[in-house]
Amino acid sequence: MAHLLDVAAAGVGSPVADAEAAIDAREVRKSYGSVEVLRGVDLRVPRGSVLALLGPNGAGKTTMVRILSTLILADGGRARVTGFDVATDRREVRRRISLTGQYAAVDLLQTGAENLVTLARLRGLSRPAARRRAAELLERFDLLEAGPRRVGTYSGGMRRRLDLAASLVGDPEVIFLDEPTTGLDPRSRQTMWTALGGLVAEGVTVVLTTQYLDEADRLADRIAVLDGGRIVAEGTGEQLKQRVSGKRLELHAASAEAFADLKARLTQRGAHADASERTIAVPIGNGAAEARAVLDELDPTRAAIDDFAIRSATLDDVFLALTGQRVARAAHDQEDSDG
């Protein structure tokens, strides 16, 4: 159903003059009953760029995507996509965007090629043109051999790739991807990343929600961290890492007792502890000099810490520091319907 956003009827709208911004949202608010999901969100996404929207479950990521893609109305504020208001020019917005949700929205009874041809025909392409467009997309997503097969026989990764291919039938200017690589194997993720890179090179704007932080670090020109219904940080990956800490000292405790003691002593320093691994990561600002001072302070007898390493800050550190939430790298719970 998400791909039917690409098949909206023609309408008349009034674009604004800001040709540089594919998305311009100001003070967007949304509540469900007494629960404030979005509390005044500002976003500006330049054309031909990738924005990654990060946040814990329930932070409001999916709600923001639904508003920008015209699926729901905001309670306050305003938002424009490709110059058109998402509330008053919904048809014009839908003509120019595509949305790929958390689960593949393809017909399992049709073949891969039939799925794409059907959507192309709904877009108004002639039958020969629809078949050519389907073949182009199947080749782009490494599905040419699987094209004649029923989608019900596809693996999960193949269905996700077909889903993204379907979202491109209408050559959208803006693509919203809501956790597009969830559950994919490494090869399928790599294929998706390569395809997204090609789209951006062609001038397409991408808004990506993900909980895979390596994905955001690799793909996004800018990253916005959403927590509690607000944008709590925004910038490039490197800017966000510097904001949290340039370096971190990772300690491995020699015993469970030593781990408990170190954790208690480091709580006020913004450290993050993993009891299962007996490791603690401590932000440090001055590299080796501060690391030596911390080690001397915490373990003067050289008995509590049996290993350590100095590492550059990662987006995991950013996420944990800004939201206080633990990120699951390989699997995570489905985001709540309000988030």
Descriptive keywords:
single chain, 339 residues, alpha/beta, Rossmann fold, Alpha-Beta Plaits, 2 domains, six-stranded mixed sheet, four-stranded antiparallel sheet, 11 helices, globular
Question: Please, could you describe this protein's structure?
Answer:
The chain has helices spanning 61-68, 90-96, 112-122, 127-140, 156-167, 186-201, 213-219, 237-244, 256-266, 288-298, 315-323; strands at residues 21-32, 35-46, 50-54, 76-81, 84-85, 97-100, 174-178, 205-209, 222-227, 230-235, 247-253, 272-274, 279-284, 305-312. It is α/β, with parallel strands linked by helices. Helix 3 (112-122) packs across helix 4 (127-140), helix 5 packs parallel to helix 6 and helix 8 crosses helix 11. The protein has two domains: 2-240, P-loop containing nucleotide triphosphate hydrolases (Rossmann fold, 3-Layer(aba) Sandwich); 246-312, Alpha-Beta Plaits (2-Layer Sandwich), CATH 3.30.70. Mean pLDDT is 84; it is low at 4-17 and 325-338. The longest helix is centred in the middle third of the chain and has 16 residues, at 186-201. Helix 6 (186-201) links the parallel strand 7 (174-178) and strand 8. The chain is 34% helix and 26% strand. The strands form three sheets. It has a six-stranded mixed beta sheet with strand order 6-7-8-3-9-10, sandwiched between helices.
Residues in helices, as a percent range: 25-40%
Biggest sheet: strand arrangement:
6-7-8-3-9-10
Mean pLDDT: 84
Number of domains: 2
The CATH topology of the largest domain, please?
Answer: Rossmann fold
Relevant CATH superfamily of the largest domain: P-loop containing nucleotide triphosphate hydrolases
- Name given to the CATH architecture of the largest domain: 3-Layer(aba) Sandwich
Count of DSSP strands: 14
Structural class: alpha/beta
Report strand %.
25-35%
